[in-house]
Inverse folding.
């Protein structure tokens, strides 16, 4: 006889999402692949802490990230769930939907002109 037991966590401190879900990560990686193929972005990194998860995009590996796509794990408002930071740490845009956020941001093409 097989019993179907389920684990129920009834804890207000338990967070269901501790990382980007598959569809969110797929949207970010699709954008990353597009920008790498155009030669704008070179590297990425992931930063994880208790408050947020961040996908950092680099133009060169030795510099600060150009953009940081962040998911806030405990947002105060719905609009603060996802946000994008620039190189200086300023918020470019924020939204409750990652897909619309990625499409609304104007990803600048930085080219070296000699």
């Amino acid at each position: 006889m097989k019993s179907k037991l389920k684990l129920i966590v009834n804890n207000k401190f338990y967070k269901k999402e501790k990382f980007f879900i598959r569809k969110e990560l797929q949207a970010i990686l699709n954008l990353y692949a597009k920008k790498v193929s155009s030669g704008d972005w070179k590297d990425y990194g992931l930063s994880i802490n208790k408050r947020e998860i961040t996908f950092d995009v680099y133009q060169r590996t030795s510099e600060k990230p150009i953009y940081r796509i962040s998911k806030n794990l405990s947002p105060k408002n719905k609009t603060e769930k996802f946000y994008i930071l620039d190189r200086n740490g300023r918020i470019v845009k924020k939204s409750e939907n990652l897909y619309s956020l990625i499409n609304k941001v104007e990803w600048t093409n930085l080219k070296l002109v000699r």
